[in-house]
Amino acid sequence: RVATVNGNGTADLVIVANRLPVDRVTEADGTPGWRKSPGGLVTALEPVMRSNDGAWIGWPGSTDEEMEPFVDEGLSLIPMTLSPAEIEEHYEGFSNGTLWPLYHDVVAKPAFHREWWDSYVTVNERFAAKAAQVAAKGATVWVQDYQMQLVPAMLRELRPDLRIGFFLHIPFPPAELFQQLPWRRQILEGLLGADIVGFQLAGGAANFVRLVRQRVGHKTHRDTIYLPDGRTVRAAAFPISIDFTEFEELARSESVSQRAKQIREALGDPETVLLGIDRLDYTKGITPRIRAYSELVRDGHFDVEDTVFIQVATPSRERVDQYRALRDDIDRLVGRINGDLGKIGRPAISYMHSSYPRHEMAALYRAADMMVVTPYRDGMNLVAKEYVACRYENDGALVLSEFAGAAEELRQAWQVNPYDINGMKATILDAARAEPKEVTRRMRAMRKQVRENDVSQWAIRFLDALASVPHDHGKTVRP
Ligand code: F6P
Predict the structure, then answer these.
(1) Coiled coil where (predicted)?
(2) What residues does ligand 1 touch, defined as CB less than 6 Å away?
(3) Which ligand 1 atom sits closest to the C-alpha of 42?
(4) Which residue puts its alpha carbon closest to atom 4 of ligand 1?
(5) CA spacing 20 to 30 A to 282: which of 220, 300, 324, 380?
(6) Residue 38 CA, ligand 1 centroid: distance in Å
(7) How many angstroms does the Cα of residue 40 sit away from the middle of ligand 1?
(8) Which residues touch 117 (CB under 8 Å, ≥6 apart)?
(9) Ligand 1 test: best mutation among 15, 41, 377, most atoms within 8 Å of CB?
(10) pLDDT for residue 396
């Protein structure tokens, strides 16, 4: 698997992301190995980059071993080391203790620490310097997500010849919340180093343009920002997606069908299976969802003899306090619900704190009559789209939070407000009792939407927009 990347300064397409698409792990026998990284970003970008022979700069996960660049199935991977202090301050601290809650509607309280900010700057500088080193003349560099928001401006300073794109995978908050950030101006200026700043939704792009006008004082017109040096920056929505065909093919495979059957058998062949799959994160609304379902069981609308709720929570950011506390809360809640409502061999909630490969995920999607996705706030939520892609028989009900980015595209889902437990209960019941014809009508429409807007469309749209940026970065085009 390991080969050295040929020299520096040769890559025409470079991704800069906090994580590499693979994580360094220690196998059970103590030997080092690699595993696919968690999260939507990698799921979306990996297929695109493999087919473009790109270079990918990122952190290989929680190790401080220095690693050489290597090539993995046509993709040059350039590992960046984070020291233990940087993992604590840049990754767990500023990225996931400050920006993550701030950008998700402050559903948890963001912490503001000056040392965390300093570390964020240092790490962004190092990633920008590496991109400047590996990018060929006139190359395209695509910077990803909230952990890397200073890279565009730092990189432009080092390499004005590059086309630089930035895409934010998580929500971009309203000005009223963003303004809490002591370093708000630096973040806005960091992003303005890009030619195109991409967001999941038009609302995020509008929030950004408004903040740039108010806080930095640049002239703006619709989605365009006019910088004093004559350069222009475009802010636009590029809703991310999944590899629809890959998921559908996987779902249709004999082994996934078998596994889906096995899963239902292992649960005692219930009539109805409901499913939730999330990273274990306080933005995902796992608690109100489980509470809503348990009340439906308690009130006699569902019976544990013939219905089960499978909840998979993928371990995530386990050293961050709020994530630890959430895990304990969910353990306790599920334990209490199963203690109160379960029967022998029939838990109300079948709970797994574990991450599964794609094959098992597809089998779970195939096994579930209803998928319940209820984040308080989510940039997109690819799990909802994966469920849709796997339901090739046009059956299966999707209950979806109106605060997930995906709700703008998946209009035919049964939409819910996760803060409204009674509303959620009523909608879950509606979805469970819907006529098969109604379920099919909705699923068919959603499948068309995701099929026609898959991840390759997303990447093509973004990269085409970037390719059409003039070489002078818009300096000659004035309003
Ligand atoms: O897709 C959003 C995202 O935050 C990515 O940026 C991130 O890589 C992924 O979720 C998983 O989180 P983490 O990298 O912190 O494990």
Answers:
(1) none
(2) 18-19, 38-41, 145, 169-170, 316-317
(3) 8
(4) 39
(5) 300
(6) 7
(7) 7
(8) 94, 98, 182, 183
(9) 41
(10) 98
Measured by CA distance, the residue closest to atom 3 of ligand 1 is 39
| Separation of CA 137 and ligand 1 centre (Å) | 30
Q: What is the pLDDT of residue 10?
A: 86
Cα(84) to centroid(ligand 1), Å: 19
